[in-house]
Each structure stands twice: as structure tokens, then as C-alpha cells.
Amino acid sequence: MAGGQDITDRLSMACTVCKSGPLEKIHYVTHILGKRHQKNLKNRSKALKKDEMSRTLHVTGFKKDTPLETLVGTFYRYEVVNISPFLSYCFMELKSRQTVQKCLDDEHFIGLQKLKVSLRHQSQATGSSSPLRLNWRAQMALKQTISSAQSQWHAIDALVKSIELKTEHYEQREFLRQTLENFLRPDFPVAMACVFGSSANNLGFVGCDVDLYVHLGVDPWSEGTKAQKESKARDLTWYLARKLKNSKRGYKVQAIAKARVPIVKFEDALTRLQVDLSFRNGMPIYNTQLICQYTRTHLLVRPYLMVIRYWAKIQDIAGGAQPTYLITNYGFTMLMLFYLMVRSEPLIPSVSQLKAQCPANVRGEHTIEGWDCSFGQDVTHWAGRKHNVTVLELVCEFFEYYGKFDPRKWVISPLAGRLLDKTAIKQKDKSKLPPCMEYYCSQDTDLQLDTALCLQDPFEHSYNITRGLHAGPLTEFQYKCRKAAEVCSEIISQEKPLGQLFEDVFIDESILSSIQACDSPVSKEGDVTQEEIITLDDSDEISQGDASQDEIEILDVDVTPDPEEDPHDVPSASPRASSSSSNANGNPMKKKGAGFLAKRKAEEEEIEICQANEGESSVEEIPCDEDTNDSSVEEIPNGDAGAEAANENGVAKKKSSSKSPPVAVDPQAKPEKKFFKFQMNFATVKEFTITFDGCISGGKEVMKSEDDIGYAASSLIHFILQQCLKMEVNPASSSSAEEGKRKSESPESTGSGKRIKNADGNVVNVVPTYRKVTEYRCSTENQLWVGRRKASKMVPNILNTNPLQYEMAVTQAQMANYIGHENGRCPTGAATLEFIVTVWQKMEEPSVVLVTGDSLSDEKLTRGMMMPLFLYLSYLAPNLLEKIAMYIVRTSTKR
Asked: Given a cut of 60, is residue 141 above it in pLDDT?
């Protein structure tokens, strides 16, 4: 930590939260107020959040209109981490307690006005998860020193009986299962519900949530492309969420539609239990049955698991699906069971040993998505074994094992019952892996190894249970394990009572810095995907971090960074109002969730579009390595083959792969410009025609003609802009005119009509990847894409409704909300947005259509209106295309 002299003379500073810098004062202040830094603060480990109170100052005495930049700059030299502003005061979080004390000892002024600085008072407990309420018998047992093995057993038994689920709790969950099953059967006649997780694995605590799997008889993942499967799963998730909310069966309904396993979270109206409803597959049921069987394998297993789970709850080590950077409850349970397999005298068999007990005629009967979930249930041999060890000694061994565990080399495999070498798994080397891994080696899917901790699922062998765990929380977990091992040893030696194990572990400055140094809160490719959590309430307000139904990802957003911003960070336009952006009139616009703004991993090749001179569109095809996830493009260097080329902005580009054929680069093209853009696929869409009133006709055969696909895509985009969003739409150009012009200018050329010299001096044609189909110049004062989700609730969505006419009805319902405003305009109608929408078609695959947009308005309008507009447009257009295809098939079948 820096001393007082270092604090005074500090000229630049690095941000330890974002791992950026060192930055000069003006850049550091802007970075602290930026979006990226604020996002990373939310994903910090629990240890950093707990210590936040002791490092936070209460600052007052400044004017209400004082800019945040001024406040942060005043305390800059004390290593400011965050600021929470209010009207007449603010909370200033500093990096360490040493700088806090130095700041309290000094005087601070803004101009001639002296500030009042004091330590923030801690009004509530630091732990976010409050411990369970224990009965008097358990409280007395935790206060007493354990004198013998028998007294230890009675104390642990008293603790377990106090926190475990009782008979009435299981009956309540069974009632919930039956009533919810009956609730869904009118729409899903074969619906069957099953409780899994903590409420069914014999390890549940009082008040735990209910995990419920429902077999609906409908499988959205059965057929279609990946995008189509995900779209159908989202639609089904939304249908269940709306049904629960509209029927008043569920309160506080949340739809997590974009998760690996879509979930509907709600509070049951009858039992007041928190429910997580899923419908993907029944694999969690087998996981629950496996854990439940392990708890009955030996007398020592269940109390051992319950004690450590209670310790983890007190220490905030494990959690449910949120936050995603912690160990899940299921993953933590598998860690505990794994140790019982690898100790010198195993208490339980490995999963592969249980699978070997299955009769040959039973194997394969319980297969889910290609993975065999069957296992033997005869554990009589293991239950009869005698072990010279107590529960508390097992607990102490667990803490010692994981406190010293090195996760960099090994994969924890409950399937094999031992550690597996990461290199052998990566290479799928059967000679170095146990026989139970043979099926995994024959699969195309790979286990994700580039995570802080790798824990293999016992049934789905290519699934890493702890894929979302960050390095910071793992470091905190191992540190607390080492401390708990020391306390356990003292309890066993009768130096401390049992209750000392469940006291919150204090993290000092050194370990806090260690956790912060290795913490990496920003998700990487391969980490657990950010889930779209959408709350269904009566308000259209979107809380920070949530996303509305109409919000999805876009490939690129044109955001011009401020010259004074951190070059590695693009903060919000207004730091004081970082949670919202504004339009031209200063009216706040709802902020979109951070998850959908992150770039998605494109299923197809990355597309780079350059705007050529004289209004022509020249799209340059640049080959990329299919295995790379880097968003940078490749270019043939003019100099040495090994040298890196740089574009006009000074960004280094990778040298061309030897596998890629040379291509010509247009030297007259303007520098790359980012557009709003999204794709649509017409590969399986039948011919259709859209009329002005939203009627759809056609559906005779799948479109194959390039012109028919281009016309259909243009008609769909034109209909959405003009009829759904009520914009003024004027065609700016047409593909036939441009193609005729290009052919007349250069009869020998194919594509854009441009010919240039390559690195060898030969003249070659510049062949574009995309051709322009049509271009629309649009203008609007109506922000009908804002609040459209709320308006859609006013229109009944019947299954056989024409999708286009339904969207027109939503528009009419939304316009009705603005009665009293001139021409039905939104309250912010004074700001006029002008932009260009262009429809492109891929040359080699005409079924692939790209829609791009570029704002003609100023930057403020672009941020305030264009971004949410294209977010909505990029959601609606592909979904309408899919619904049109389904509607055509459905109506043609009736004929």
C-alpha cells in the first residue's frame, strides 16, 4: 500500500478493479465514472463487497450542482474506487483503509468551500446472506466445547435438525408440484412436474427455493437451426411467464429466457414459496437422485454435507444461479462428494463405479441428449463399512484439501472418482484417461478447461459445472478453507466451541489485495452467458441490469468516444446520469441491460462494411481464420510477410493466413465505419407477399431466386418501418439501377466495378461479399419502439393471428397511450431522427440478408434514439420472419 508521501505525489494511477492503467488524473476520473468500471464493480467478489463499508467515506458540504468529476478529482490522490452521489452528500469508496485514514486526517476544499468527511456508518450486517435461525438446542450446542466424539455427534445432530427441511415442508412442496401440474395441463395435456435440487436431494435448508422441472410434451430443441431452437425456447419461456402472471398464480415473475437452461422465476401465490421452473430436460432430476443416494450411502455423509453447506452459506461461498461468478450449490455439493471419493479411505463410490452396477438391459434407458444418466443403486457394501473418523474430522479434511488444491493442472471428475490431467483431456488421450472417459473422447464436444476451476459433470461429461467461477471468488474460497481448517483443528482439540466454525472470516488487507489482484469480473468467451432476466410487472420501467422483451444484441454500435475518456473505456455520455441516456430535449431514456449490449459470438463470419466514394457500396471480402474469436480483420501487408500491418487509425491487424487466398484491398475506400446491423436468413422461408394492410399470401415453395428473396426482405423491412413504427420511408436507390450503372462503366468487371493492383502488381477485380438490394431514407418523431412491450400486453395474442396484423394492432394500442399529444406523438416528439436503412444480400448465399443502419442525426440523438430503435428492429424483423413462415405453413395446411 502507498504511504502518505506516495499519496501526495501521485501523478498517475492504475484501476485494480478493471486491470487498466496507469492513467493520468483526467483519464482516471473519467474511467471511474465510466460504464465499464461500474459494471465491473457489480461483479466483484463477496470479500471485496464486505470490506467496502470500512473503506467508504461520507462526504458532504458541497453544492448540489457540483459535477461528479470535480468530487472524484478532489479525492483522486486517495485512490478513489467508486462514488455514489445523492442530492447533498455522496459516498466515496477508496482502495484501502490506509488511504481512508489519511483522507480523514486531511482537510478538503472545493474552491473556498470546506468539505465534511467522515467514515460511513455501518447500519447493517456485512453479510448479504443472513444465517438460518437456529432453535435453542442448536444454539446451546454451538456454544459448548466438544469434549468427546459422542458430544460432537450430539452437537452436529442438533445443528442439522434445526436447519433441515421438516416433514411439513416436503408436504408443502408436493402440494405445489401437484397444483402447478394441474394448472398447466389445460394448455399442455401431458404436463408432468418434478421437484429437484435442494428441496429433493435430502440436503435442503428451511426456506430454500423450489426447483421444479416440468415436462410439457413440447421440445423447442428438437429440430431447426440453433437460432430457431433458441427462439422457440424463448417464446415458450415467455408464454409460461405470462400465463403465471396473468392468472395471478405467480407474483414477481421473471423470465430468464436466454440462459443455457431457460427458467421462469416466481413466487407461488398459494404456498408463498420461491419457485424456479425449467423445462429443458430431466437431467437435473438424475443429478438430484444421485446426490440423494450419496447422502444415504453412509451414516457420516449427510451430516458432513450439511455442516459444510451451512458454513458456505454463512461465508457467502456458494449460491444459486445468481451471481454467476460464484460456485453454484450443485457444484459445491459435488466438490464435497468428490473429496469423499479421493480420501485415503473412500466413504462413497465414484459415479463410474455406480454405473458399472447397472444391469446391461437397463443401460441406455435413461439417456438425455446423448448422455447416459443411469447408475446403480445398491450401496449396501459401502453402508456397512466402518471408518475411524468423526464428522468434524471429515469437515477439517475437506477444508485442508481444497485450501491447498491447485486448480491449474487438474480437472475434478466425480465420474472417475479422481483428478484428471487437463492436457490429457484436451488431447483426448485415451491412454492417459480412465475407461469411463472413453465415451467423452468419442464426442465432438469438449470440456471447457480455460476456467478458474474445472469440475466435470458426472453425467454430461463435456459440461464444466464451475465454468462461471471467477479467480477472485476461488481465491477467497481457498483462503476461507485454510482458516476454517485451523478453526476445526482447535475445535477438535477442545480449544474452541463448535460455533467458532460458523463465524464470519475476517479478510485482512493483504488477502483482500490478493483477491482483488486475481479477480477478473469481466466475462470471457466461454464463460457462462449473461442471462436475460426480465421482470414481468405492471410497469414498463427497466431496472439496471435487466432487459425488456424487445431488447436483443446487435453486432456493432457506433459510439464515438470522448477525447478525454480512458482509451480503453467508453463511459456514458453523462457521468452523473450514467444509468440513462437522453434525447435532444434532455428527457431521460430507459437504459438497456448490459447483457444484450455485449457483442454476441456470430454464428457466421464477421462482416465488415466500408462506405465507398460517390455513394457506391463496395463490400470487401477479407478471409478470416474460422477458429479465431478475434474481431480484428486480416490484411495482406505491403512490406515484409512477417510484419504487422496497421489501418489508418493505427490499429494493428493480423497478417494474412497462408491458407487464405490473396484479395485486393480498395485504397480509395474510406476508413471503416461501424453500422447498426443484423442478419436474417431466408433459407427455409416459402414465397410470400405482404400487402399494405398486413395481409400475407403465398407459401407455395421455398424461395431460391435471388431477386425474390431481396424483394421479400425489402418488403418486410419497409412494412416494419412504415406500418409498425409509423415512419416516413422513402426509397433512396434500387439494386437494378446500380447494377446497370456498374456494368455500363466496366463491362469486364464483376461486382463493384472497381479494379486495383494487388501486392504483386497485377490488376484484379474487387469482388464484394454483399450486394445492395435497396436503401431507405427514414425520418420519425415517434418513438414507438420505446415502451412497446407494455403496449403488447394490451393486445390479445391469439395463436392463429396474422403476425403482421398483430404488430399493427400493437402499434394502434401504443398510439392510444399518447392521446393528448399532437398527432399521437410521444412526449419527446420534438426530436426528429433521420437515418438510412440498407438491405444487403450475400453474393454466394442469397438467402442471407443483412440489414444495416446509419444515423444522419447528431451524436446525441444517435445514442438516445437510434440505438434502442435498432435493438428493437433487430429483434422484431427476424422474429416476424420466422412467424411469417410458421403462419404460411399453418394456413396452407388448413386449405
From this structure: yes
Q: Does residue 710 share a domain with residue 644?
A: no
Q: Which of 79-93, 296-310, 688-702 has the highest mean pLDDT?
A: 296-310
Q: What's the structural domain count of the chain?
A: 5
- How far apart CA 623 and CA 601 sit, in angstroms, is 17
Domain match, 327 and 396 both: yes
| Amino acid letter, 423 | T
**Do 702 and 850 share a structural domain?**
yes
Cα angle: 528, vertex 235, 209; to 5 degrees? 55
φ, ψ for residue 251 (rounded to 5)?
A: -115, 160
DSSP letter for each residue of 34-100: SHHHHHHHHT--HHHHHTTGGGEEEEE-S-TT--HHHHHHHTGGGTEEEEEE-SSEEEEEES-HHHH
Q: Is the pLDDT of residue 451 over 80?
A: yes
What is the tens place of the pLDDT at every residue in 498-526?
999 998 777 765 666 666 566 544 444 33
Are residues 182 and 100 part of one domain?
no
What is the spatial distance between Cα 742 and Cα 749, in angstroms, rounded to a whole number? 8
Domain for residue 558, yes or no?
no
Give the structural domain span for 462: 299-506
pLDDT in tens, 523-544: 443 333 444 556 564 333 323 3
Provide the CA 513 distance to its chain's centre, in angstroms: 27
| Residue 260 burial (C-beta neighbours within 10 Å; 0-12, 13-18, 19+) | exposed
Would you say residue 140 lies in a domain?
no
- CA distance from start to end of the chain: 78
User: Is 70 exceeded by the pLDDT of residue 465?
Assistant: yes
Task: Convert the pLDDT of each residue in 171-181 to its tens digit.
Answer: 999 999 999 99
In this structure, are 311 and 203 located in the same domain? no
How does strand 581-582 pair with strand 533-536?
unpaired
Same domain, 614 and 635: no
Strand-strand pairing, 634-635 and 652-655 = parallel
Task: Single out the residue in 220, 247, 280 at which a domain terminates.
Answer: 280
pLDDT at position 44 over 90:
no
Quick one: which of 418, 393, 526, 405 has its CA closest to 477? Answer: 405
**pLDDT score of 524:** 40
**Inter-axis angle of helices 867-894 and 226-246, nearest 10:** 90
Asked if residue 181 is part of any domain, the answer here is: yes
Answer with the residue of higher pLDDT: 121 or 811.
Answer: 811
